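Class prep. Write one:
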Amino acid sequence: MQAPPARYNKVSIALHWIVAVLVLVLIGLGVYMVDIPRGTPERSFFYNLHKSIGLTTAIIVLIRFWWRKKNPPPPLPASMPKWQVVTSNIIHALLYTCLIMMPIAGFTASQFTKWGVTYFGLFKIPPMASPNAALYDVFQGVHENTAYVLMFILTVHILAAFYHLLFVKDGVFQRMLPGR
């Protein structure tokens, strides 16, 4: 009988699940808020909520990225085919790329509006540039397109996790579960 693979440490697990929940909330907000009529208080509220959660998530992602560099993930099972290991590495690199690129593009887009960012109603990060619709469109386009890429990659990531849980049963899924 093969020993179960080593688990991630508690901090890595906590950061993973905090980011996962926040990203799902951000996707839900992003899908919901684009249909709210312009110029309404509801739209302003949800856009600032999305931006605030997005900035918070970006900070946590940077902490997670730093933590992962200091605490590499446990090795994958030796029985895992090479193509799955390579695919896993690519998917994780793309996840981090999207999780870093999205908030940068979204925040930058906000810098070319007249609104900036009101962080959870606590303080305002005013725009650092003059309104510029063309630049806003470029950065907002990067933000939105990266969101679609992220949703695809998350789907692959989640399906792969459940594949390991339900079919391969090699303990890969359990490595990132909280608890023992």
In short: The chain has a mean pLDDT of 94. The longest strand covers residues 117-119. The helical segments are 10-33, 41-70, 82-110, 133-168.
